[in-house]
Amino acid sequence: IMRTRQASMGSRSRGAAAKVLATVRMYIPAGKASPSPPLGPALGQRGVNIAGFCKDFNDRTKDIKEGIPIPVRITVNSDRTFSFVATSPPTSYFLKAAAGIEKGARKPGHEAVGKVSLKHIYEIALVKSRDPAFARVPLESVCKTIIGSARSLGIQVVR
Predict the structure, then answer these.
(1) Is 116 within 8 Å of 155 (Cβ atoms)?
(2) Taken in order 9, 37, 3, 15, is the CA torsion positive or negative?
(3) Which residue, 59, 81, 132, 141, is the most exposed by fewest CB within 10 angstroms?
(4) Rounded Cα gap, residues 57 and 20, in angstroms
């Protein structure tokens, strides 16, 4: 999954340095970044040093279990430099792992494919609350969001 947003010509700048050329968002398995598609072409067409990115990403994610999908936002500057922000794995990954399932339900709400306890929800919320998206969100609200995600996957939340 990849989304790209081109910055406008009068876009924000990094001090006196280069302007932001593009922002690339994608999921990359922890410790397994390689120049192969879809990562290589996405960065290559913007002139980024792909090997340098792969090395930096793999170094930063070496402490995470290999293969876990990590959401990454890569900011490409006009001078061909880059910076990236890696956040925690998606909520659906944690929920599927806790429920012990591979895929969500075909008809969420009509069938249940697994069960998770409120303790699982709380543990997932603790991890997700460290993300920038949940910076100033109370833990209770994060738990409610995760419960909603579980329902949309067809996972039953039990006490």
Answers:
(1) yes
(2) negative
(3) 132
(4) 20
Phi–psi pair at 148, nearest 5 degrees:
-65, -40
What is the pTM assigned to this prediction? 0.80
In order of 39, 43, 79, 87, 152, the CA distances from 22 in angstroms are 14, 10, 12, 19, 32
Indicate the helix (H) or strand (E) that contains 130: none
CA distance 99 to 108: 15
Q: Which amino acid is at 20?
A: V
Token reading at 15: 């001090």
* Sequence letter at residue 134: F
Q: Residue 98: what pLDDT?
A: 95
Q: Could you report the per-residue pLDDT of 32-49, keeping only the tens digit for each?
A: 999 988 899 999 999 899
Q: Is the peptide bond before 38 cis (omega within 30 degrees of 0)?
A: yes
1-16 pLDDT per residue, tens:
444 444 433 334 445 5
